[in-house]
Amino acid sequence: MKCTVCKGPAVIDVRRHNANFCAEHFLRLCRDQVARAIKDFDMLGRSDRVLVAVSGGKDSLAVWDILLGLGYQVDGLYVGLGIGDYSDSSGGFARAFATERGLHLVEVDLPTDHGFDIPTGARAAKRVPCSACGLSKRHLFDEAARSGGYDVVATGHNLDDEAAVLFGNVLHWQADYLGRQLPVLPARHGFPKKVKPLVRLGEREMAAYCVLRGIDYIVEECPMAAGNKHLGYKEALNAIEAQSPGSKHDFYFGFLDRGSHRFTPDAEVEQRDLGPCERCGVPTTGEVCAFCKLVARATAVPVELGRRT
Amino acid sequence: MKCTVCKGPAVIDVRRHNANFCAEHFLRLCRDQVARAIKDFDMLGRSDRVLVAVSGGKDSLAVWDILLGLGYQVDGLYVGLGIGDYSDSSGGFARAFATERGLHLVEVDLPTDHGFDIPTGARAAKRVPCSACGLSKRHLFDEAARSGGYDVVATGHNLDDEAAVLFGNVLHWQADYLGRQLPVLPARHGFPKKVKPLVRLGEREMAAYCVLRGIDYIVEECPMAAGNKHLGYKEALNAIEAQSPGSKHDFYFGFLDRGSHRFTPDAEVEQRDLGPCERCGVPTTGEVCAFCKLVARATAVPVELGRRT
Q1: pLDDT tens digits, residue range B247-265?
Q2: Helix, strand, or coil here: B259?
Q3: What's the predicted TM-score (pTM) here?
Q4: What ipTM does this complex have?
Q5: Which of A32, A53, A176, B188 lies most in the core, judged by the most C-beta atoms within 10 Å?
Q6: Using H for helix, E for strand and C for coil, what is the string for B174-190?
Q7: Given an 8 Å threshold on Cβ–Cβ distance, is A175 in contact with B258?
Q8: CA-closest candidate to residue B155, choices B258, B34, B18, B236
Q9: Which residues of A touch B255 (CB under 8 A)?
């Protein structure tokens, strides 16, 4: 197997590009794909202060590494979610990455700062853990970006993640979710801009990137995610991808080209109805935002629920 | 396992309905689901002369049987495609069904009437066999319905089929195909109305229906379909369905409710550009329709290709 670029010995094949790469040209491919995503979707400016949300996993550490390599100003944000040993271990990888490279890592801890962990919060709110976790992270990313004066939050969502989320949204024809499933969400209503620079790269490539760059990351999946629907969607798409390499790319980018705009009005309806949460002030469609409701339930403080009329 | 309706011994469970059925109530379920699809989508009127396209497989023989049971006037149409033993065998099942019940079966034979079979046609036109077969069948169904004075062509596409076609269309975001993927296509431009009365029933149910009604059908899949993408889409959706029963139903009917109308304009653009094929007169977007091009290639008669300007 020879590198498609230099004909030297290849270390990885990328079937959807119908190409093989040596270490040097594979790392260049990854950087080029991120640079192209940033350019195509107008993700980042040179003067932007970027906060990358790092979990200690391959994707988020790789995106931090690549964005730094491309010359952007990027700090990290680690959110402790209180998921037992998994959180201890993932936080260790994030801290080690930052320390070894002299980078600034902002830390937020859900149990310390808000008095509950994800397993407790999910039980109390009768939500699946991934739902309680997702909404908590979104809230805490926003809060950290605002309090730290960052312009943009970057996350490590890769092509496999986005294709699987898209599949779930399409399976249920959730028009509002489809209307806002974009690689960039502009800053508005006090929310920072959000970008996904890895949308042109797959999970397998990000693992290879970390190995080749000597980045240590937590290999285990979150124990709370086992058996969730998102993983089922990934498996189904993996079967399709094995049959026709490039399917995930075409599915996701075909959506952005030819599907997404059809659902924009549904997402805008929701944006129009936003007002400040009466507890924390973030934009929400109800009187109290989903995160404050979760906090109240998880810490057993009663909250009066209602919707703005 | 007890029948959810009568508490007698059940013969089948239908997970997406979270219910079990005895033979009597399962057959009633199948008829009720077809009656509901006919009503919800205004598929058939009592005075319509219906031509059901039968392949000799479970779905098409079942839909013929159910439509007759519901009191509609239905003849069958068998199209011989020249796929070796498979065609001989499938034709035998269709003829036996009709003969045993004293029904009228119209027969058309692609090799006899048009001088080529599907394997030859696919090779000559450099199409995958399922593509050459699909376009041939659509043409021959239309032709038989018009020459026989039928109002409606009914096909045996079930929920599994439609969900898999939808998945393929969504994976590629084929807006024009999505715009016309409906359980009913109205009569227009000389095409008869087309209906899919089995859209509320799955593959497994249709097999059970045939067994319980004593209908002999060809069990083998078409040998030319092995390994095609459609079967891959079915497998992927089966995995999702096993994880969450009802997923296929929600995917397809959610599309009809909340997705389909967004793609209608793309299908209408194509409709607007239709004119008569200069060889056979059917509506087409080019000068010569896809079937006449296939005939020309398969029988080695040169055809001048071009598009209407």
Answers
A1: 999 999 999 999 999 999 9
A2: helix
A3: 0.92
A4: 0.90
A5: A53
A6: CHHHHHCCCCEECCECC
A7: yes
A8: B34
A9: 173
